[in-house]
Amino acid sequence: VTLSGHGENALTNGWFGRYTVRLDIGLITKFKKENGRAPFEATLLHEFAHIRNKDVDYTYLAVAIWRLFVPCVLIPFVAVQGWQLISGPSNQRASLFWPGNRPVLISELILAAAMVGLTYLSMAEILRIRETCADIAAVGHQADGDYWKHHAQAEGTVQDRPTWRIAIRAARALFRTHPDWRTRVDALADPQALVTVRALPMLLTGAATELLGYFIQATIGASSYSSRYIWLEDCDIWLMAA
User: Fold this and answer.
1) How far apart are CA 45 and CA 144, in angstroms?
2) How far apart are CA 98 and CA 86, in angstroms?
3) How far from 48 is each of 18, 53, 147, CA to CA, in Å?
4) Mind spelling out the 3-state secondary structure of 195-211?
5) 24: which strand partners?
6) Nearest alpha-carbon partner for 131 in 50, 43, 64
7) How many CB atoms lie within 10 A of CB 10?
8) Beta-ladder partners of 15
9) pLDDT at 199 over 90
10) CA distance linking residue 150 with residue 145, whole number of Å
């Protein structure tokens, strides 16, 4: 256990079975106050649940995939597609990508932007699920459930807000790596909801399947096209030589 900061949070880090729970100094200070023991125990049991569930390594993996995706896949792809989009015809022969395939390049750039969103949504969904599972495990080990209810009440009731604010809140929640407190309280009341079919996982699974099929077909099609093009070019050279 290490101490840092002046907030009231805790964080588990480490890898391969060597984990450290970092506690904010404010959490230790709260423990010494009246009625501060229950929140302290709930927070600590939540962090211990991450270790018990062995999801700390999965978190590092999910975040690493996202962080590697941008510099290693997205930026090179966008650079190549952008260069092909603006390069225009060469002096020797017309480019294969201009102008007939220009809409294809634009659609590829749009597809890249969609992949960025889907990749981040997948990572955020994984991290939200691990938080909810840790909550359920903590309450199962005698953590005080009122700790989560207190935070949910502090957030306020969503029903009293305008419709547009509720919509914005719901959209922002999709990109957060931690679920809001009301969602966490609902999960504690009905843990089986985690294993039911939900809209976002279905969307991400369907999109991943469609993208995989698209890229497999595109790769096979590109290989066939390239082979035909080289064959036709060789035929032209042979005819000119003859």
Assistant:
1) 10
2) 9
3) 13, 9, 16
4) HCCCHHHHHHHHHHHHH
5) 4
6) 50
7) 18
8) 18
9) no
10) 9
Q: What is the DSSP string of 36-101?
A: -HHHHHHHHHHHHHHHHHT-HHHHHHHHHHHHHHIIIIIHHHHHHHHHHHHH---SSS--TTSSTT
Which amino acid appears at position 70 of this protein? V
Q: CA dist 124 to 131, 168, 203, 228, 234, Å? A: 11, 17, 14, 43, 51
63 within 8 A of 147, measured Cβ to Cβ: no
Cα-to-chain-centroid distance, residue 146: 30
Rounded Cα–Cα distance for residues 191 and 181 (Å): 15
Predicted local distance difference test score (pLDDT) of residue 234: 42
pTM for this predicted structure? 0.71
Distance CA 225, CA 6 (A): 61
Contact call for residues 155 and 182 (beta carbons, < 8 A): yes
pLDDT at 138: 93
pLDDT digits (tens, 9 = 90+) for 111-137: 778 888 888 888 888 889 899 999 999
